[in-house]
Amino acid sequence: MASFQFELVTPEKLLFSGPVESVVVPGSEGDFEVLSQHAPVMSTIRPGIIVVKETAGGSSRHLFVRGGFADVNPQGLTILAEQAVPIEEMTPDKLSQEIAAAEAAVQAAVDDAAKALADLKLGQIKELQKALS
Predict the structure, then answer these.
(1) Angle at CA of residue 65, ends 7 and 17, nearest 5°
(2) Nearest CA-CA partner of 44 in 123, 102, 121
(3) Closest by alpha carbon to 43, among 87, 15, 73?
(4) Could you tell me if 97 and 38 lie in one domain?
(5) Longest dimension (CA), the chain
(6) Which residues are in the ATP synthase F1 complex delta/epsilon subunit N-terminal domain (predicted)?
(7) Whether residues 80 and 114 fall in one domain
(8) What region does 13 belong to: left with phi over 0, alpha with psi -120 to 50, or beta?
(9) φ and ψ of 49, to 5 deg
(10) Can you give the pTM of this predicted structure?
(11) What tens digit of pLDDT does each residue of 43-92 get?
């Protein structure tokens, strides 16, 4: 299978950079898989799991991402994430902290649109918690 360049960047660091066979992205309109020669697209991403199938040995990495943007172009895929951590580092305590932060965002929302967006993110993180249990 053909490979393409993938980079996952957070405000703190470059978390991944290298050739991959495929990446499953939790898009805001639903999950989508990027393969070599994918059509160009820009999408927001929701809290969820990114699945990266690397070319060397075909191993897969699973990374939790809190949100951000995905840019597919002829050079490959770049994800600019608000926050991203390897799934094995997502302890129940960390997930509880994510939920508490999302609940605080719901409480701090000043208008209906902000409250709806915060409620959506809270629901997505709670779904992730169920999936990981």
Answers:
(1) 15
(2) 121
(3) 73
(4) no
(5) 49
(6) 4-84
(7) no
(8) beta
(9) -110, 130
(10) 0.78
(11) 999 888 999 998 767 789 999 888 899 999 998 999 999 888 888 887 88
